[in-house]
Design goal:
alpha+beta
């Protein structure tokens, strides 16, 4: 591999694998409100939030860290009251019980409004804070932590729109990933250069253990372990992977005040892309080096697929993340690049129809399904079994298969996305 490309892939990993406290959509809203309050330099009388449909969808039902509440209103209030914008996606890292109490009162007084922004891209957040005759406006666009535009009382403080467009174009041109290139990089790079990925394992395993020890959300992971103890389920690799992954999602989506290591702007994707690999690595007692290389493969595969799909869509991110996990598991089991391609095809042929109906406590069920499918697909791939190119959206070429999946999510499910949001907004 070219030296230039190797360095760019390491940069890509560091950019797309970052800590996040809470579900990234409401946390991005909290980040916008924290920055807007800082620019206003006063606590606002009102906060107005305008968001894209996908941000609204993913912010309606998920627990906000440290509170017993869900939704974008409490996220916005917390961001303005106790958030620190310099912490990025850990903006609520230092909130106190007093901050939470004040935020709840602020929301109860109906001083926060949340509405849908028409004709905007899928990742769009606009926050306007007002105090007497003064106001501040902050816009986050395209990336969850990207503050693109800042305005204060009519004066433009920051406008990175053109800069961001150029930056994204530059990013796209930096390194063109492929499954073959990912495998080549992961198996040849000096392991010391990618050892930082173990911090993601540490964070995500810690919140998984928290989810297993307490009654968070639907308790999907905890109940798997309980049923193992009852003799209803067997204590095998697959159930271990399901329990560990689901428990982390149980805790995170219920509002646990512990960070996770995200992937491509999604905490649940970070959980799903790492923990099944960790679970299999633990049970097979693999070396640290092999686990690191497997995690590099799993994360890069997810980043690669997500590049084609976009940050937010009607396709559940679990599909992408579990595809990455299956690739990492296949490597642990002794698979090569061809076996990894088989594993991805098996995943696409299995759970590609899973929809995203918003971030919520029930996501733990989806990630447990993803973890199970990841192990199963890897086991088939190791034996040289793949879903045939004669079936469904699978192509002979793995890259075309990934593009087909992305086209389903981007083009084919556009109306599905709108219908999902409409159903969510109009439920009795």
């Amino acid at each position: 591999m070219k030296f230039y490309e190797k360095d760019k892939i390491i940069e890509l990993l560091k950019r797309e694998i970052v800590p996040a406290l809470g579900c990234t959509e409401p946390i991005a809203v909290a980040l916008a409100s924290a920055k807007a309050k800082e620019i206003l330099n006063a606590f606002p009388d009102t906060i107005e939030i305008l968001v894209s449909g996908n941000i609204l969808k993913n912010g309606m039902g998920v627990g906000i860290p440290g509170t017993d509440m869900t939704g974008l209103s409490i996220a916005a209030a917390l961001g303005a009251i106790g958030g620190r914008s310099e912490e990025g996606l850990e903006v609520l890292k230092y909130i106190s019980e007093k901050d939470i109490k004040l935020a709840k009162e602020f929301v109860k007084s109906e001083k926060v409004s949340v509405s849908l922004k028409s004709k905007c891209e899928k990742l769009y957040i606009e926050c306007i804070c007002r105090k007497d005759d003064e106001y501040s406006k902050v816009i986050i666009r395209r990336e969850h932590s990207n503050i693109e535009y800042i305005e204060h009382n009519g004066d433009i403080v920051c406008n990175n729109t053109e800069k961001l467009d150029n930056l994204i174009q530059k990013k796209d041109n930096e390194v063109e990933l492929s499954i073959e290139k990912i495998y080549d990089f992961a198996t040849s790079v000096d392991v010391s250069e990618v050892k930082f990925i173990l911090e993601g394992m540490r964070l995500n395993k810690a919140i998984a253990e928290e989810g297993l020890s307490k009654e968070y959300g639907l308790q999907v992971g905890k109940k798997i372990i309980e049923n193992i103890h009852k003799g209803i389920l067997s204590n095998d690799i697959m159930t271990h992977a399901m329990a560990l992954t689901a428990a982390a999602s149980d805790a995170r989506m219920a509002g646990c005040m512990m960070p996770v290591m995200s992937n491509s702007g999604s905490g649940n994707q970070g959980i799903t892309v790492m923990l099944p690999v960790v679970a299999v690595g633990e049970r097979l007692n693999v070396s640290e080096e092999k686990l690191i290389r497997a995690l590099v493969i799993s994360n890069l595969v997810a980043i690669h697929i997500k590049h084609h799909l976009g940050k937010l869509s009607a396709l559940c991110g679990c599909v992408i993340a579990a595809g990455g996990a299956s690739s990492g598991i296949t490597y642990i089991l002794g698979g090569d690049v061809q076996n990894i391609s088989y594993a991805i095809k098996n995943m696409v042929g299995n759970i590609s129809g899973m929809i995203c109906d918003g971030a919520k406590i029930g996501c733990a069920l989806k990630v447990s399904t993803g973890a199970s499918a990841a192990v199963q697909s890897a086991l088939l791939a190791i034996d040289g079994i793949e879903v045939s190119h004669m079936e469904g959206i699978i192509d002979r070429d793995i890259e075309n298969t990934i593009i087909n999946l992305a086209n389903i999510g981007v083009e084919g499910m556009g109306e599905t996305d709108k219908l999902i949001l409409d159903i969510m907004l109009n439920k009795s």
